[in-house]
Inverse folding.
């Protein structure tokens, strides 16, 4: 088994993927996107890259990757703790995990001045938390925040977590975690 292409494929550019969660799945990537990724891989003659459809909550590999990425996806998982543990286990010693997620605090009162907070809380209630809770999940939601993210990353086995911000990006925090 291998990680989800969403956790390994670069975002942005002409083939960047949007995040999508469907009931019952910890990771969903449209088959047409998978076909596009495989076609581009072939055209570039990349032999060290594979794209697969994989539920990361069920991922069972060890020391297989140098770097794994997740874009705006961990907070909507039914089993985010298991997903993060599986990612940490799949990384080689010293491997890096780049997680991009919503820039927020885990404490409601610290988000009052965030201009996007009302929209993020609405998205959380009507999608992220709903999908997770519908599958007896943890229901973290979009606004799980930096404190909770750090807690779960440490619990999963990441020995260092560095959170970065980009000046003009008020939406995202960039977590660079190392096993």
């Amino acid at each position: 088994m291998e990680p989800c292409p969403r956790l390994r494929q670069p975002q942005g550019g002409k083939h960047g993927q949007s995040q999508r969660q469907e009931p019952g799945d910890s990771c969903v990537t449209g088959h047409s996107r998978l076909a596009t990724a495989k076609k581009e891989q072939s055209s570039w003659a990349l032999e060290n890259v594979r794209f697969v459809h994989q539920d990361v909550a069920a991922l069972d590999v060890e020391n297989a990757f140098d770097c794994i990425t997740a874009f705006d996806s961990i907070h909507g998982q039914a089993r985010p703790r298991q997903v993060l543990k599986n990612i940490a286990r799949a990384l080689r010693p010293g491997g890096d995990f780049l997680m991009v997620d919503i820039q927020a605090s885990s404490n409601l009162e610290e988000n009052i001045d965030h201009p996007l907070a009302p929209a993020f809380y609405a998205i959380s209630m009507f999608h992220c938390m709903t999908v997770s809770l519908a599958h007896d999940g943890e229901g973290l939601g979009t606004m799980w925040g930096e404190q909770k993210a750090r807690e779960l990353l440490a619990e999963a086995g990441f020995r260092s977590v560095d959170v970065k911000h980009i000046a003009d990006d008020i939406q995202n925090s960039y977590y660079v975690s190392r096993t």
